[in-house]
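> agent: user asked for a holo structure of the chain below bound to zinc ion. Plan: (1) validate sequence alphabet, (2) canonicalize SMILES, (3) run complex prediction with ligand conditioning, (4) return tokens. Step 1... ok. Step 2... ok. Step 3 dispatched.
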Amino acid sequence: MQCVFCGGKTEKRTVTFSYEDDGKYIFVENVPADVCTKCGERTYSCDVTDMLLKFAKQEYKPVKKVMVPVFDYSQKKRGTVPSTP
Ligand SMILES: [Zn+2]
């Protein structure tokens, strides 16, 4: 398969799909995708996309929940940066 964006070669990989909707985040692990070896663009098949939409709509129970540290680049000058001794 060829990348639709840069024409590079794609290869089959399993990736972690992340999705954000109105401040709610989900991650789907072990998603089969065609990943471009040049630009990293991921392409999902129709079946996979359908499934991802179902996960996004929370039609399934998550297998686990994780705590995710969130950073805000625009806030980098505020907050405390740990000082090195
Ligand atoms: Zn590409």
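> agent: step 4 complete. Summary for user: The chain has one domain: 1-60. Residues 46-56 form the longest helix (11 residues).
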